[in-house]
Amino acid sequence: MLEWYLTLGGTEIANHARLSRYLETVGSPLTEASPCGCETFDAALVGDEPYTTPEEDAAPWWDPDVP
């Protein structure tokens, strides 16, 4: 069981590796943001390419028409 990854009906709900990378590349409107997780948990572990940004990765919840 992966503690930092959750899917429902085949749709990703939570992914701390993705969140961590997006906080690095896109940032956060919060003054402090630090994801929990494991340093060895990454995109490859769940069969994904390395994460970059929500738009480039086509994150399952990303819709460019809904900002």
In terms of DSSP E residues, the strand content is 5-15%
Number of helices: 2
Judged by helices, strands and strand pairing, the structural class is alpha+beta
Q: How would you sum up the global shape?
A: globular
State the strand order across the main sheet: 1-2
Radius of gyration: 12 Å
What is the H/E order?
Answer: EEHH
Largest sheet: 2 strands, antiparallel
Number of domains: 1
The percent range for helix content is 10-25%
Note the topology.
Blueprint: E1 5-8, E2 11-15, H1 16-25, H2 54-57
Antiparallel strand pairs: 1-2
Describe the protein.
With 67 residues, the chain is of the alpha+beta class. It has helices at 16-25, 54-57; strands spanning 5-8, 11-15. The chain has one domain (5-57). Strand 1 (5-8) and strand 2 form a beta hairpin.
From the structure above, extract its key features.
two-stranded antiparallel ribbon; 67 residues; alpha+beta; 2 strands
In short:
With 67 residues, this protein is of the alpha+beta class. The chain has two helices and two strands.
